[in-house]
What does this fold into?
Amino acid sequence: MEAAKSFIGNRVNAKGTETTGETVEKAMEPEYCEAAEPTTESEEDTKNTMDTLEALEVCKFYLENKCRFGDECKNMHEGVPVEKMVKQNKSKKKADENKTDKTKKKPPMKMAEDVIKRLQWDPMLPKEYFIIGYLDRFLGVVEENFTTFSWEDLASVDYDVLAIPQHRIQYFKYKTEKVWDKTERLDIMFGSTGSKVGIMEFMEEVDKKIKEERDNRLDDDDFDSDDEESGPSISVQVNTESDIHRISEEERSTHFIAIKISDPEIIENVTKVQKQIIGKEEILQDCCMKKGLLHITLAMVRIEGEEGVEEAKKLMRDLKPELSNILADKSKATIKIENLKSFGQRVVYADVTPAHDETFWKFANLVRTSLDNASDLVKSSNSFDYHSDYVPHLTLAKVSRPVARERRSKYIPTSYYQEFEGLRFGEQGLDNLQLCVIDSSTRYDGFYNTLAGLQFS
It folds into this structure.
């Protein structure tokens, strides 16, 4: 330490300055030493740059997106120009809105179970006119009438009862129109998905539409197979227009009981005759009975209200044991479809010839007797004497009113089908009995919607 002091003293003396020991002590203090260190050039440049930046102003023209000097501008270009900022804000707002729309939850939709419960307990909704479309593992989507199903616990029903898990239900229809659809998120029954039309209003619209369609047909040709102008028949409406006006709505048939034609040979031959007729006049295609609708009507029925529907279904169930006994001998429980005839050249039909007369007429008369013994809620609406006038037959074609007007004739010339007059169409077993709804809608297999159906094996 003493050597350092001596060195410093000598340096000072060399310059001709008088130095004391106190001065030397002060020079050795740390603060004095730091202050004595020279400032580097790089530090000075940095300091000068910072001072210059602080002195510069932000270019106001740049902020307005109008600066023409670009990077050569002497003022600072900091921040975001106004237009860019607005665009960025708009883009951000739009992105936020899209994000909100995607993340926004849809309103919860009522389940199939809710629809089932309402149909079961709401007296304003006629269950017999509602149809369920459900997913079958083998057939795909299948339609059946609501009243066909049992809604008890699946574990408690018998093997011969139609019951399905509710998650297989795809949609509900009122007659021809959907009122609830799972995949389409359609809910007119409750309006849970935003439907503005109530179920009662919707039903009125559907009924009005169907009524208009009926008014454009003669004798409801899409579902009435038993019609004639001059002879015995079973028909939904009486044939002449004057008669139609005399029939009040309260007396019209609402259902009919029939044997469904299922024999492939009969269906094939019917199609062959229909093609021949259509080949003569293409417009008659609309007058030919669709192959899925072929049947032999046994009786026309009028059913009143929900109680009447339940009574009619019970009537069908009660018929099965006795009908099964009548049909025990399968060799006698068949009918032959053969020969072509017409009712007044307006309805083309094939004769029905029982293999055993007694068996067939016991079968048909038992149905008629059951209707006669039913209450006023379920009554026969046949417009003829069943014992003397009923002619069992299979309708192939019938001229409707719109077609008759368009072609200016209500007749089908015999020459159109003459070559098939002696045709043997095939044999149909008396293996089923259907209580059908008179309506323009059909079920999955193309046949009429049914309230009840019996199968005889």
About this structure: Residues 10-21, 30-36, 218-247 have pLDDT under 50 and may be disordered. The chain is about 35% helix and 20% strand. The CA atoms of residues 283 and 403 lie 7 Å apart.
